[in-house]
Amino acid sequence: MSHEKLRGFVSEIAQLVDSNLPEAHLLEKGAVALGKLIAEDDWLPDTYAQPSPDRYQQFLLYTDARQRFSVVSFVWGPGQQTPVHNHTVWGLVGILRGAEGARSYARNDDGALVTLGEDQLLERGAVAAVSPSIGDIHRVSNAFDDRVSISIHVYGANIGGISRHVYPADGPPKPFISGYTNDTLPNLWNLSKERLDS
Ligand code: FE
């Protein structure tokens, strides 16, 4: 499979990160790049599209050598959802396959969670943003209980390696580090092989 689309996307994001734009501009331009990547569902290798019956999967597709950004494939089995969680860095979520529900939260002065705005239904091709400056706490779920959904996420750090929080309904915030499902990444750089394959 050609990795040309994913390679093009990571190089666009690297350029945006290099240009030190204000976050709002970075998110705007990053959303355009992500929208382009997810416009066609023909580039994600099956290895990184496999659901698990136990929990949603987080496949790292790429991380910048300086951990300035990462690209992750989230694979949601029927009815699966995240706990309520934060990110601590900017992030963009684009729906590649299926659809997802997202509910945003804020913490009030007592630290209690309150829902923020309406629940969102993100359909195929939609892109949503999170960050500490625009709202960083949410819960994401597969909108379907009978099929897999997949979203492609890009974050302003090596998201699986950073310490952040989940917010249980019945207790204080709990620190967590999400990690990744996979040990090996797609090889985006085997250019001569791709030329032979095409
Ligand atoms: Fe999230």
* Cα distance spanning the termini: 9 Å
- The dominant shape is globular
How many distinct domains?
1
Number of strands: 10
Strand content range: 25-35%
CATH homologous superfamily caption: Jelly Rolls
Number of helices: 3
Biggest β-sheet, characterized?
5 strands, antiparallel
CATH topology, anyone? Jelly Rolls
For the largest sheet, list the strands in their spatial order: 1-2-8-3-6
| pLDDT averaged over residues | 95
Bound molecules: fe (iii) ion
N-to-C SSE string, H for helix and E for strand? HHEEEEEEEEEEH
Gyration radius, to the nearest Å? 17 Å
| Estimated helix fraction | 10-25%
CATH architecture: Sandwich
Query: What structural class should be given to the helix and strand makeup?
Result: alpha+beta
Low-confidence stretches: none
Identify the CATH class. Mainly Beta
List the defining traits of the structure above:
Jelly Rolls; binds fe (iii) ion; 5-stranded antiparallel β-sheet; 3-stranded antiparallel β-sheet
Give a short summary of the structure.
By secondary structure, the chain is of the alpha+beta class. Helix content is 19%, strand content 32%. It is built from 3 helices and 10 strands, in the order ααββββββββββα.
Write the layout of secondary structure elements.
Blueprint (H helix, E strand, L loop, with lengths): L3 H15 L4 H16 L18 E7 L6 E7 L14 E7 L1 E9 L5 E11 L3 E4 L6 E6 L6 E7 L8 E3 L7 E3 L14 H7 L1
Antiparallel strand pairs: 1-2, 2-8, 3-6, 3-8, 4-5, 4-7, 9-10
Helix pairs in contact: 1-2
The structure holds fe (iii) ion (FE).
